[in-house]
Write a structure and sequence with these properties.
Elements (H helix, E strand, L loop, with lengths): L5 E9 L6 H14 L4 E5 L7 H4 L8 E3 L2 E3 L1 E4 L10 E5 L15 H13 L6 E7 L6 H13 L5 E8 L7 H13 L3 E12 L6 E2 L6 H8 L4 E7 L1 H9 L10 E2 L2 E2 L22 H5 L4 H16 L1
Parallel strand pairs: 1-7, 1-8, 2-6, 2-7, 8-9, 9-11
Antiparallel strand pairs: 3-4, 5-6, 9-10, 12-13
Helix pairs in contact: 1-9, 3-4
The structure holds adenosine-5'-triphosphate and iron/sulfur cluster.
């Protein structure tokens, strides 16, 4: 099995679309890699594969080697800088055009998911993050069955469930947590995304959708609450244009002063700055969400052991 040399497999789930599951997967991957772990990201959201866009590697091609597909490199390891390598495999690389969509029926999707689990040559990796489609579809059941059948004991560390402050009040997230219970996939924890908004004018974080629902729900289900992540327009800018985030002086996020990106020594070359995948992790260091994900990944790493 191509997953044999992966230490920990983590699924990223969300009750419904658009809550930021792929953004969370991206940031977990960057954060784990910035703390020295080698990370693979497998995008099995077959109807809307977004990881190539998130990592700014949309034009990359997957190479077919004798034993299977070689995942695309987002960046190599840099041991001097304490950065682990990051690789990605997605159906998006196999589609011909950026706007192409997959309109397969269930059985074909099941076959593709199985192939992704068996035919990608990951090699040795500390973490494999699997970005799943929203909801609890047949694809999730196929994925859970295939993983639990083929994975080594203890290799499937569990699921990170992503929600938003509004979604915690709905049945979707609860369905997701019930799905984990039924399929015997442990819940690593819940992340509440879009918990507040970082104003680009004054950099103050305002909890426009309320706060604390994720914590309450995690308590109800007796699972870990990993933290709240505000909406930061600078993160969207980083993904969409590849430009390094830069904040006004005195940025306050989650009640704390955010260290000024300008002080980290970068020179913001604005529009001249081009999309460069090798610099994504470096630019992410200047994002207000980076310290939040650093703390979340530390909690995940210590929970998984
Ligand atoms: N914390 C955040 N701050 C700023 N923008 C965010 C945040 N979380 C998500 N977004 C943005 O919201 C949009 C939807 O996010 P994303 O694609 O991650 O959602 P998803 O749940 O994976 O959606 P899908 O239904 O396609 O699987 C993206 O443009 C993303 O950049
Ligand atoms: S948070 Fe402050 S600067 Fe931002 S829009 Fe509101 S009032 Fe204006």
């Amino acid at each position: 099995m191509s997953l044999a040399k992966i230490k920990h497999i983590v699924l990223v789930l969300s009750g419904k679309g658009g809550v930021g599951k792929s953004s969370v997967t991206t940031q977990l991957a960057l954060s784990l890699s910035l703390s020295g772990h080698s990370v693979g990201v497998l995008d099995v959201d077959l109807t809307g594969p977004s990881m190539p866009r998130m990592f700014n590697i949309e034009d990359a091609k997957v190479t077919q080697a004798p034993g299977g597909w070689l995942p695309v490199s987002v960046h190599p390891a840099n041991p001097q800088a304490g950065i682990g390598e990051l690789r990605c495999m997605s159906l998006g690389f196999l589609l011909r055009g950026r706007g192409d969509a997959v309109v397969w029926r269930g059985p074909k999707k099941t076959v593709m998911i199985r192939q992704f689990l068996t035919d990608v040559l990951w090699g040795e990796m500390d973490y494999l993050l699997i970005d799943t489609p929203p909801g609890t579809s047949d694809e999730h059941i196929s994925l859970a069955e295939a993983l639990l059948k083929d994975a080594l004991p203890g290799q499937v560390a569990g699921a990170v469930v992503v929600t938003t402050p509004q979604a915690v009040a709905t049945a979707d997230v609860r369905k997701e947590l019930n799905f984990c219970a039924k399929t015997s996939i442990p819940v690593v924890g819940v992340i509440e995304n879009m918990a507040g908004f970082v104003c680009p004018n004054c950099a103050e974080c305002t909890n426009i959708f309320g706060k604390g629902g994720g914590q309450v729900m995690a308590d109800d289900f007796n699972v870990r609450f990993l933290g709240g992540v505000p909406i930061d327009p600078q993160f969207v800018m980083l993904v969409e244009t590849g430009r390094r985030p830069s904040y006004p002086e005195g940025t306050i996020i989650n009640g704390q002063d955010f260290p000024k990106a300008q002080e980290t020594g970068h020179v913001d070359s604005g529009a001249q700055e081009t999309k460069d995948a090798s610099l994504l992790a470096d630019k992410y260091r200047s994002c207000s969400l980076e310290p939040i994900f650093k703390k979340i990944t530390q909690d995940i790493v210590s929970a998984i052991g």
